[in-house]
Amino acid sequence: MYRALQQMTKATVIDEKVLNDCLNEITRALLKADVNLELVKIMTMNIKKIVNLDKLADGHDKRKIIQHAIFDELCKMLDTGKPSFTPKKGKPSVVMFVGLQGPGKTTSCTKYASYYQKKGWKPALVCADTFLAGAFDQLKQNATKAKIPFYGRNENCDLIIIDTSGRHQQEASLFEEMRQLKEATQPDLVIFVMDSSIGQAAFIQAQAFNRKCSSCAVTATKSPVIFLGTGEHVHEFEVFDVKPFVSRLLGMGDMSGFLNKIQEVMPSEEHQLELFQKIAEGTFTLAMMREQYQNVLNVGPLSEFYSMLPGLNAAKIKRYMTIMDSMTNEELDSKDPNNLIKESRIMRIARGSGRSMQDVKDMFDDYKRSAKIMKGMKISSRGMNAQQLSQMVPPQMLRQMGGLQNLMRQMGSSKDMKGMLKGKRK
Known about the structure:
Layout: H1 2-10, H2 16-32, H3 37-50, H4 62-78, E1 93-99, H5 105-118, E2 123-128, H6 135-145, E3 159-164, H7 172-185, E4 189-193, H8 201-213, E5 227-229, E6 237-239, H9 242-249, H10 255-265, H11 269-280, H12 286-298, H13 302-308, H14 314-325, H15 329-333, H16 337-340, H17 343-353, H18 357-377, H19 386-392, H20 395-400, H21 403-412, H22 415-422
Parallel strand pairs: 1-3, 1-4, 2-3
Antiparallel strand pairs: 5-6
C-alpha cells in the first residue's frame, strides 16, 4: 500500500487513471492479505465518492485529498467506534482470555499483566486451562519471569487475569466449560486472542466465540481490537490505536508511537531535562548521538521501530554503534571531534571496529549534519516552532510522513512532545 501512495505522489498529473491505479494497487494488497472482498469494494466506492476529480476546483492538493480519503476509509474499516474496557486502580477487575489453540493466548495473558503492572496495577494470573498438558507450568513460568503473582487474593491484587483452555468451534464440551467459567468468575472483560495470519477464517471463529461468550476483542464482531502482540517477548505488546496503525500501514510513520517508545527507555526525567538543555544550548557530541542510538536499540524490534519513523536504516545504526565502541571517552565527549581525530586515528578506529575507513568517515559526516542542525536550533524557552522542527527532519522523510502539518499533528498526540512544542517542561 505504501508503494501505491508513493507512485501516486510521484505522478506529474493526478487524473482518473492515476487514482484508479492507486486504488487497484491497494485493493490487490488487501485481497492478498485475505481481507473480505465486500469490505474492499465498499472502501473503494467510498474513496471514489470522496475524491471526485472532475468537481475539484483548481488549487486543491489532489494528492493530499486522495491520501486522506484512503487513510480515513481504512480507519473506518478497523474502528468500531466503541470504547474498550479499562480497569480501574483499587477496584478488582477480572479479565478472561479465550481463543483457539496456538495463537499465543497464555503469552498474551502475561503481556497484558506486565503492561498494566508497569502502569501501577497489581495484576495476578490464574490458570483455568484444564485441557492442555503443561498449561499450568507454562503460565507459572511466564508469571515468574515477568515478576507477576501467580494468583492470590491475599496479595490484594486489583487485576485478575484468567487463562482458559484453547478451543475450536466444533468442540462443544470446551465451549460449555468456557460458558460455565464465565458465569462463575463474572469477568469485566472477555478478550479473544487470534492469530492475524488466519485471514477471513478469523471472522467465523470470532462469531462462534461471540455467540457463546460475548467476546470483546475482534472488529468483525463489532467489538474493539484493543492490543497487538508484535513478538514473543513480554515487552512486544502495544495498545491498538487505529490512526497510528493505519499510518504505519501506509508507510507514513507514527511519530506519537515513536516518541512514546523512546519515552519508555529514557533513563529518567532529570536525564532527559539535562539532555534537552544541552541541545537547547547547541551542544551535541558523539557520546550524545551514541546514547540516542542506544535508546533506539532498547526500544524493541527494529522493524517495528522503523515502521514508526520511516527513512532510518537499521544496519547503519548498528554499524555506527560498533564504530563508536572503538572510540575513547575523550573523543566521544569532545564538542569538536573532527579536529581531535586525524586520518591516522580514523584508520585505527576502522581497524578496531572491523569497518572500513569510509564507514568511519560516513559516520562523521552524519554526525556533522546532526550537530549542525542541533547547534543551529538553539531552542528557546518558548519551545520548538514548526520551522525548527522541519530542519530536524530530512525532506524525504517529511514527504513520506504527509508533510509538516501531519508530522506536527502526530507529535501533538504525544503528551511529552506537547510540552516540548509549547516550551513546558516537567
